[in-house]
Specification:
Protein-Tyrosine Phosphatase, Chain A, elongated, Phosphatase PAP2 family protein, Aur1/Ipt1, membrane, transmembrane helix, 2 domains, five-stranded mixed sheet, Prot-tyrosine_phosphatase-like
Length: 411
């Protein structure tokens, strides 16, 4: 039986895992920060360039302002947050997150490369609705028009809520609410008809593209980062940003390709170190990991230390100079990190020859496959059975080594 068949069979027999509050909150924060950064930045750039072009049609001029429509318009924020905590499984939560994330970034690139301005005059109705509009104008300026993110999000909201609303009254309530949300973008004079049509197309595209997935789509994130870098360089026409793009874009695309193929050997780490050509080609990626490691170890998580799982098995992060002396002198080092060079004191030809240093790279963020866990168990268990102390580590000590330690202790 092939590895693919074995994994597929295992997935078929394994029930979908329930989404945890921690996962829901992490994905919510990721998308909220992503939206805020992109939306405010593109708004600011459009205002700074005094953008005046628009796609207002003749029919848009006859659309009246209906003040109470600010209520369904404002419901978008509530639904944005609610659905993260409404998702029952991790797969549903990740799919929703990826759809929102993709819509935000695709729309952001349109805002950056084709900025447009709302042509309706900003009107403040009387009473408390006027206060609601005033609050809206503080956050939502007259730019970031096409496509309408409000409409794209509304279709994604509908796609996820319709799966749980089984009764006819609930479905009618959902359809009516989403229809009002979409219509409110016109009747609050926040968007034109062209924005609504393209927003609906964007939402449907994200629903079709972003299928359920078992693991985080890391390759997609790197490709999106590459696209943003290229778009910013094109938009700004700044020499330094062009140089940064020229050096970073190939690296980001190669990392994305490695994650898409599941190539855990793409950095060609040997005896704990990367070849010179890898250090040059992947310099932005490797530098980012080194800075992240320094930030985690010395600022954010200085309390992370070597953790003793059993008398012979310890796990943790890549060690600092002062921590190496804490290891047993006869310890075997199992290095799961592909991105970080090993400390020179722990690797080298002699350590590799005596099996004191063994490198089994795993891609960061992605969970290990069943075959990878079995291969690591076959590597580590004989050492433990022979009485050899083992230090199992990844870069930060958060995920990869803990996954493997849980697997080892269960077997």
């Amino acid at each position: 039986m092939s590895e693919f068949t074995e994994i597929s069979a295992a997935k078929a027999l394994t029930p979908e895992r329930t989404a945890t509050p921690s996962l829901m909150t992490r994905l919510l924060v990721l998308n909220a920060l992503s939206f805020t950064l992109i939306y405010l930045t593109t708004n600011w750039l459009a205002a700074a360039h005094q953008v005046s072009q628009h796609l207002m049609l003749a029919a848009d001029a006859s659309i009246p302002l209906i003040p109470w429509m600010i209520i369904p318009y404002s419901s978008s924020l509530v639904l944005f947050v609610f659905i993260f905590y409404h998702c029952g499984t991790q797969q549903q939560c990740r799919q929703y997150s990826l759809q929102i994330f993709t819509a935000t970034h695709l729309a952001g690139m349109c805002f950056l490369l084709m900025p447009l301005r709302q042509q309706h005059a900003a009107v403040l109705p009387e009473g408390w609705l006027g206060f609601a509009f005033q609050s809206l104008y503080l956050m939502d300026q007259r730019y970031n028009q096409l496509p309408s993110l409000h409409v794209a999000y509304a279709l994604i909201f509908w796609f996820h809520l319709r799966q749980t609303m089984r009764t006819l009254p609930a479905q009618l309530l959902l359809h009516t609410g989403i229809a009002l949300l979409i219509a409110s973008t016109l009747f609050t004079h926040q968007h034109h008809l062209a924005d609504v049509i393209t927003g609906a197309a964007l939402g449907w595209l994200c629903i079709c593209l972003c299928k359920p997935h078992e693991v985080p789509p890391v390759a997609a994130y790197y490709r999106i980062a590459a696209a943003w870098l290229a778009a910013l360089a094109f938009y700004s026409q700044n020499l330094w940003l062009f140089l940064l793009t020229a050096t970073s874009l190939p690296c980001l695309l190669l990392v994305a390709q490695a994650y898409a193929r599941g190539d855990r050997h793409f950095l060609h780490k040997q005896q704990g170190q990367h070849p010179v050509w890898v250090r040059l080609l992947y310099a932005p990626y490797l530098t980012g990991y080194r800075l992240s490691w320094l930030l985690q170890r010395y600022v954010l998580q200085p309390a992370i230390r070597i953790q003793q799982i059993t008398p012979l098995l310890a796990i943790g992060p890549r060690l600092r100079n002062a921590e190496i002396s804490q290891l047993h002198p006869a310890s075997a080092i199992i290095d799961l990190s592909a991105e970080m060079p090993e400390h020179p004191a722990l690797c080298g030809p002699l350590a590799a020859a005596t099996k004191r240093y063994l490198h089994y790279p795993l891609l960061d963020i992605l969970p290990p496959t069943p075959q990878q866990m079995q291969e690591l168990a076959a590597l580590i268990l004989p050492l433990l059975e022979a009485g050899t102390p083992v230090y199992l580590h990844c870069a930060m000590g958060f995920h990869r080594c803990r996954h493997i330690a849980r697997y080892l202790t269960s077997h």
